[in-house]
Structures are given as structure tokens and as C-alpha cells.
Design brief:
The chain contains no helices and 14 strands. It is mainly beta. It has a four-stranded antiparallel beta sheet, with no helix packed on it. The protein is globular, with a radius of gyration of 17 Å.
Length: 193
Amino acid sequence: LNSIDVAGDYAYVANDDNVVQLQVISIASTTNPTVVATSTLPNVTFTCSPPSPCLSGRSIFYYNKKVYIGTAYIANLSLPATENNEFHIFGVTDPTNPTWEGSYNVNHNINGIVVRKEMMGGVEKTLAYLATSADYRELYVLDVTNPASISELGTGFNALGDEDGKSLYVIGNKIYLGRMDGSGSNPDSPEFH
């Protein structure tokens, strides 16, 4: 299990597997947790060599009856741009029956996700903040208000150096971004923005 988020009696898990990336586990009984649903990400066609789970779920976030899941970078240039997306949204109004609602191609590992509502120009939007492996932009911001029509907002954030974004936390009007350990003129021990 690469990442877990919990809401009510359910744990939502980004699974370390090339086929079943999402698991929903009932934790109503803490002594007997039970997998109640699994799902494979749609529109993903890629082969990789075991034991490397290149299609595994890497990060997950639950917010307002939806689960947001990120994977490792998926490359298959022979497929249309609408396939092999690394960011996916599932509706979990019924946690035992996750329903895929949309996806977005980031072309990088998605190592961390935070989702919340924000007011933009007097309009309430649902935004997803992503910590990614992009050397030129470790933080992406996506408008996920309509999961069937996800769009990028702004240019994100590029920290000095080329270390990957690994984790993030959002509180108030601040985003805290953690990065991988670097060396040389851009050490990040710890790297924190």
C-alpha cells in the first residue's frame, strides 16, 4: 500500500499493483478490516517489467465523496493524449462501488495530492494540488470542479534545483511543499518550500 486516506468507516488505498490501483477497505471493525471494492484505472495501456509496478497507485486523497489517485509517470506515445493519464478521480458516494469520473495527463509521477474548495473570482472551485516529479514544476494546480473537464490553473511552482516534489500540505492560504533530498549547490536536507 503506497498511500492511504480515511473517511468514516472506509480507508481508500493507492495500491502497489499494476492492475488494481485502488482499493476500498471497510474499517468499521478495526480487528477485521475487509476489502469491499477494487478498481483498475481506465484508459491506461502500458507494459512494464516486473517487479517494477510502474502503473501502481502512488498517492491518494479523499475529499467530499470523491477519491483522487495519482500514479507513476506513464509513457506510451502511440496512444492518444486522452489515455495513459496519471491523475484520476473516482466518485465514492457508495464506497463499495467506486465510479470513475475523469482523469488528466500530467506526464510525471504524482507523489502527493491535496484537494479543497477555493473561491476564485466569486466562484467556488474544487482545486487539486499535486506534488510531482517535474524538474521544472514540482507543484501543479488543477481545477477539478468538473471531473470530466479537468484543467490546469496557472503555471504551478518551480523550486530551485531539479529535485522532485514528494509531499504537500495546504492550510489557509499557504502550500507547504516537501522535496527529495538533493546535493551540491541545491541541498534539500530538508527541502521545504
